[in-house]
Amino acid sequence: MKQTLTVILGGGAGTRLYPLTKYRAKPAVPLTGKYRLIDVAISNAINSELRHIYVLTQYLSSSLNRHVSQAYRFDIFSNGFVEILAAEQAEEGGHWYQGTADALRQQWHTFDIPGFDLFLVLPGDALYHMDYRPLIRQHRESGADITVAVNTVPRKNAHHFGLLHLDDKGVITDFREKPKGDAMNGIEAPQAMLEKFGDRFPFGDTFLASMGVYVFNRSALERYVLETDFNDFGKHIIPTAIKSSKCHGYIFPGYWEDIGTIAAFFEAHMGLLKDPPVFSFNRPSWPIFTRPRFLPNINAVHCNLENCRVADGCILEGATVRTSIIGIRSHVRRDAVIEDSILMGCDYYEENARHRADVPLGIGERAVIKRAIIDKNVRIGRGVKILNIDNVREKDSELYCIRDGIVIIPKNTVIPDGTVI
Hints:
Blueprint: E1 4-9, E2 30-31, E3 35-36, H1 37-47, E4 52-57, H2 62-71, E5 81-86, H3 100-106, H4 108-111, E6 118-123, E7 126-127, H5 132-142, E8 146-154, H6 155-158, E9 162-166, E10 172-177, H7 191-194, E11 206-217, H8 218-226, H9 233-244, E12 247-251, E13 257-258, H10 262-272, E14 299-301, E15 304-306, E16 309-310, E17 315-317, E18 320-322, E19 325-326, E20 331-332, E21 337-339, E22 342-343, E23 362-363, E24 368-370, E25 372-374, E26 379-380, E27 385-386, E28 394-396, E29 401-403, E30 406-409, E31 414-415
Parallel strand pairs: 1-4, 1-6, 4-5, 8-12, 14-17, 15-18, 16-19, 17-20, 18-21, 19-22, 21-24, 22-25, 23-26, 24-27, 25-30, 26-31
Antiparallel strand pairs: 2-3, 6-11, 7-13, 8-11, 9-10, 9-11, 28-29, 29-30
């Protein structure tokens, strides 16, 4: 594993996750009110004994920089690191990353160091437990130039992914990046392949999708990144490489969710509240790391809490919380009702509760919030109702957005007393 360099792609502008990406890079979006999306990829790498990790980002990266620098510090006796690399201006010019492959091309002067013969390229916005060691082992044993980790997706979501076909030896024989309509025909996953995933989806309505997890031999990466003008792995490199290089698929049958849209973000969080949860943060052998904080115990008085996760430092006063996630330092006041919602919490405590526009930080008395995402440092006034009773699917407003019927209150927003959404 010492010969493998890990590169985590911070993603583009994250427009499909807007407004959660209004003030932050996509990998910095809070996860379960305690972690950040980037923590999953970094933790998987560290647990897989990978210690040389770069995170590539460019959009609104200050909070991501701060989180990574405060969360991931190796001791002085280790040569391991987790380092942020942002798009930068150089003597020969410079521009924003034009795609996933172009990001590596622009940073090649950093990666071009001796001792690393493999590159593990990861997405920074997916939720999954994965030990990368079997993937790397298969890559070496198969003699592949490129290995792509593969999971299954149903037809209704398949157009968001790169879809591929594997032969009986695991060789990639076809790859189509985000196909739509008739372009999806003929690439459905065969029944024999679905059995390796436990038949989670029906035959004929299920596809094999790239997880955005790649292993490259150094020579292959140099050939396709440095010797071409290809900008993207899925759009350009993989479809080209399968014609002239040895490209294999790696079957990953475990839970995997690409957090690319508001709907996916919301459903993944609701899945964490199932019994059993779709993804567990309580695995001693595979911890998910994050920034250490020094917060007090949860203070819950006269509350009704059902099927919820409550993060450190929260104050709950006579509130009812059902099937919801309550993020760090949240303050939920008397007779408030939170159902099927995500509260991301706050970055700080407020000494003076009547500080701004007479609406204190947190959730006000008698507020009712259902099927919503409340971003950080939001002030919800007394008697506010966030219900979307008209079942609006998409809308943009000064105080809120609605995506897929889910109401999102952006970071730092103030909702006045008595507002109904």
